[in-house]
Design goal:
The protein is an all-alpha fold and 302 residues long. It contains 13 helices and no strands. It has one domain. The protein is 71% helix and 0% strand. Helix 2 packs antiparallel against helix 3 and helix 3 runs antiparallel to helix 7. The termini are close together.
């Protein structure tokens, strides 16, 4: 498969993840808590992947098993609980903006943990700045109401750092196991490390509520499409494009979220938000524009 195909896959995955905001909001409005949503989402994905994935239970050695557990924590329980809990303390716009700092953390972690030499390309920095500026406009949608709330903003930042670590862990596991096996272990350890939280507040297991079409349908979408399919293909994207290049597609998530909110949640959109979307697209395109006269060390598929 050519590199261009992996860029298309990355865009489609981020597009799907951008729609999960609306699905999650619908579930929250119908009585499920953030931890309930995450548990059922990953449970559906974990059960479903057994029909496709390898039957092996453990990695080849303790170190790799530890890395798989770390992937489940950083890309599962810590990421989702930090992000969702942050919404209880601060504005959604703050959380969305902080989540888009993940590519920046990925760059630094790739440099210091993976020892990757990030090419001195001005387009990389300019594209990042342009895309981040666009994220600000899209996130606030013309309403600049940024308010600092230490607890909520710290949790939002923690979610971004956690996702950056997840991408790094995927690179450390690169080439040793199938993507289906890695993805299944992410779901397993994500669920396992979430369980202690239910000691404080039990899981909502109201069969009447869960059988409602709007609840059941959105949980299936989050579990099968946004988790099972998207995590599998995102892991492939990170493997083929590299940690840094894959992470830049995260900037596109607010654009999709904005469009979905307009269609499903009947939210309004401003000219400033549209301008922000254009800046994001331009920034991602600019950051991706690499020099062709040097080998791309961040593109193992080249």
């Amino acid at each position: 498969m050519k590199t261009a195909h992996y860029h298309l896959i990355a865009f489609l995955v981020i597009a799907a993840w951008g729609t999960t905001f609306a699905a999650t909001m619908i579930l929250l409005h119908n009585g499920l808590s953030p931890r309930d949503i995450f548990f059922y989402r990953f449970l559906v994905a974990y059960v479903a992947i057994w029909f496709f994935g390898p039957r092996r239970l453990f990695a080849d050695n303790f170190k790799d098993e530890f890395l798989l557990m770390l992937a489940g924590i950083t890309g599962g329980s810590v990421y989702f609980m930090a992000e969702n809990t942050a919404l209880e303390f601060t504005h959604a716009s703050n959380v969305a903006l902080l989540a888009c700092t993940a590519p920046i953390f990925t760059i630094f972690l790739s440099r210091f943990l993976l020892k990757e030499k990030i090419e001195k390309n001005r387009n990389l920095l300019r594209g990042s700045i342009l895309a981040l500026a666009g994220v600000v406009l899209v996130t606030f949608n013309g309403r600049f109401l940024l308010q600092m709330n230490p607890m909520g903003d710290i949790l939002g930042l923690l979610a971004a750092i956690s996702w950056a670590f997840y991408i790094i862990v995927l690179k450390l596991l690169d080439g040793r196991y199938s993507m289906l096996f890695i993805t299944r272990k992410v779901f397993f350890y994500g669920l396992l490390t979430l369980l202690p939280l239910f000691l404080h507040r039990p899981l909502n297991f109201n069969a009447f509520v869960l059988r409602q079409p709007i609840i059941f349908g959105n949980l299936l979408y989050l579990g099968l499409a946004a988790s099972l399919i998207c995590y599998f293909f995102w892991n492939i994207v990170v493997k083929r494009l590299g940690a840094v290049r894959a992470s830049y597609y995260i900037y596109l998530a607010p654009v999709v979220t904005m469009a979905t909110a307009v269609v499903i949640l009947n939210e309004t959109i401003t000219f400033m938000a549209v301008a922000g979307a254009i800046l994001i697209l331009a920034g991602v395109a600019l950051a991706e524009k690499q020099k062709t006269d040097k080998k791309q060390v961040l593109d193992p598929g080249s």
